[in-house]
């Protein structure tokens, strides 16, 4: 955290989030950067400059002065600079994790579309690519706390699903797990990921992953499922709210709803600074209509038949790791046993003091479990 005596290690984020914010616009009253934050952030991301992390470019702001008209932050507390702050945080966290961001352009039945994805490491013969699939209303950056500790000799890819993050051009009137599966296959084919992969999914993403493995087993050598959509016996009050069309716990629109979401989905319950919260809400508001459509479609189309869909998992031959937080308030941890009984070659691990978002509550334990599982089964494959 920035303080009155310490120069922030990463000032572009820390000085805005953790300094003493101006009550009018939220800009930090403690520190300012003597260059162009936006340009130097991008140069740092490309490896061309480290100026933005050099303390000599950061200075104490005298007498708590503030620049309300800063070109990147907007005026009088507008969400513009706060949304930009979140985007810059994602960029820097991506860079720090050893990931690089890419865009894959697609002709989606005559519609210009693109997948946004990040990549770490390079493809290695005999070592599977590890692909990470996020859940509903999430994005590829949600995996950063887990991927950052994966050694660079593992080839890792995270991708924004249609209707999420920076992937564009795939809007649907009605979403379904099978449509996500087909778009994921399209991504793999365009990326020429021909060797069987280790595919990891969280929440809805885990449901997509296991059913993808059942439909296209030739693409998969192993799967990891982090608290997928489970059966009715493992439902919680949150799922019953979602089924009734009450989405605000999962799709917050106000700071109060955001903090309630964090309180529900995690055990650590980190206290995010208000500029970050406002920026997050602003970015999510741009996709809110799609996210509501996705949840409504899933509960209308897929959920009534979910156990029939999951019956296909009995035919899976690939190894599967099932991870669940004991304090998960989306689906109870008893869902882990449900999947262990469905998938023949599976093992499960319950993480203590952990809610639904393992990347917040138990990132190191989650990374360790994934690497142990992946590396042990790679040895068995050869």
Automatic annotation (TrEMBL):
Q: What PANTHER family does the record point to? A: MONOACYLGLYCEROL LIPASE, MONOACYLGLYCEROL LIPASE ABHD6
Which Pfam families does the record cross-reference, listed alphabetically? Abhydrolase_1 (PF00561)
Q: What SUPFAM superfamilies does this protein map onto?
A: alpha/beta-Hydrolases
What is the documented function of this protein? Lipase that preferentially hydrolysis medium-chain saturated monoacylglycerols including 2-arachidonoylglycerol. Through 2-arachidonoylglycerol degradation may regulate endocannabinoid signaling pathways. Also has a lysophosphatidyl lipase activity with a preference for lysophosphatidylglycerol among other lysophospholipids. Also able to degrade bis(monoacylglycero)phosphate (BMP) and constitutes the major enzyme for BMP catabolism.
Naturally occurring in which organism (per UniProt): Adineta steineri
Q: What is its EC number?
A: 3.1.1.23
Q: Which reaction does it catalyse?
A: 1-dodecanoylglycerol + H2O = dodecanoate + glycerol + H(+); Hydrolyzes glycerol monoesters of long-chain fatty acids
Question: What topology does it adopt in the membrane?
Answer: Single-pass type II membrane protein
- Fetch the Gene3D superfamilies from UniProt: alpha/beta hydrolase
GO molecular-function annotation terms?
A: monoacylglycerol lipase activity
GO-annotated cellular components: late endosome membrane; lysosomal membrane; mitochondrial membrane
Q: Its Gene Ontology biological processes?
A: acylglycerol catabolic process
Q: What is this protein called?
A: acylglycerol lipase
**Ranges of residues in domain AB hydrolase-1:** 128-363
UniProt subcellular location:
Late endosome membrane; Lysosome membrane; Mitochondrion membrane
